[in-house]
Amino acid sequence: MSRRGSDRFTAHTGVVGAVELPPFAAQYGHVASRRAIDARILELLSARLCHELSGPVAAINNGVELLAEEDFSGSLPDPAFLKDAMALVSDSARRARSRLQFYRFAYGFSSGSAIAGPAPHEIAMGFFAATRIVGEYADAMRLLSPEWQKLACNLLLVGADALPRGGRLILTDAPLTLDAIGEPAALPPEAHEALILAAPIGELTPRTVQPYFTGLLAMALDGALIVTIEPGIVRFRVIRSSDDPS
């Protein structure tokens, strides 16, 4: 399959200035640059993770404060009040747990490790259970290696950002494809540039670092991310170089 234009990932090399560096200095400079890039991505992913967890954690705190502020002395507690407060704490704790499970796998799983806890498709569907997005995780996807399922979970986050009013996320295999279906379904240009690793590291934000990280995962699996946009649908496909006859 031929890939042209901005939809094709290509690796770039560059030369800084016209000064030829000694081998050791050139190697050191490359390592320092790589570490700076890694640190930048880590900082932004941490910021995104904290943002994702702040909502349910704050709701848990609000529920606990309601219970703490209620004066139960001299009278029986209002059953309706207790029910509402406990429901707030319980629902928020469930959301926090599902998000922690999801991000633990999406960000924390390393190649060669065993999957701890629920299967990837279970935590993925649990992540979207209380949202306006309905997820579909094809049976064939569940047979893929954990590394490919990690890529799929991160791709789900990119697809979710393309559905600001909710919709459907459909994951299928051969090749790995995610359809984000909804009105309006759109991928901002800066997210697209990050997804194909064309965005400068210094211009990444907590919002665009997710597609950039997803692009890195695809590259590590010898894959290229191709995006097609039609009215009401954004389609993401991961094409491996071995599948591309061009």
What features would you describe in this structure?
The chain is of the alpha+beta class and about 250 residues long. The protein has one domain (about 5-10, about 20-110, about 120-245): Heat Shock Protein 90, CATH 3.30.565. The chain has helices at about 25-70, 80-110, 120-125, 145-160, 190-195, 210-220; strands at about 135, 165-170, 175-180, 225-230, 235-240. A five-stranded mixed sheet has the order 1-2-3-5-4. The chain starts with about 20 loop residues before the first helix and ends in a 6-residue tail after the last strand. The model is unreliable at about 1-20 and about 25-30 (pLDDT under 50).
Give me the side-by-side strand order of the main sheet.
1-2-3-5-4
**Order of SSEs, N→C?**
HHHEHEEHHEE
Strand content: 5-15%
CATH class: Alpha Beta
The number of helical elements comes to 6
Low-pLDDT stretches are 1-22, 24-31
Give the CA-CA distance, first to last residue: 6 Å
The CATH superfamily bears the name Histidine kinase-like ATPase, C-terminal domain
Classify the secondary structure makeup into a structural class. alpha+beta
Gross geometry: elongated
Task: State Rg.
Answer: 22 Å
What kind of assembly state do the chains in view correspond to?
A: single chain
- The helix content is 40-55%
Number of domains: 1
Q: Provide the residue-averaged pLDDT.
A: 83
The main β sheet shows up as: 5 strands, mixed
CATH topology: Heat Shock Protein 90
Please state the second-level CATH architecture. Answer: 2-Layer Sandwich
> What is the strand tally?
5
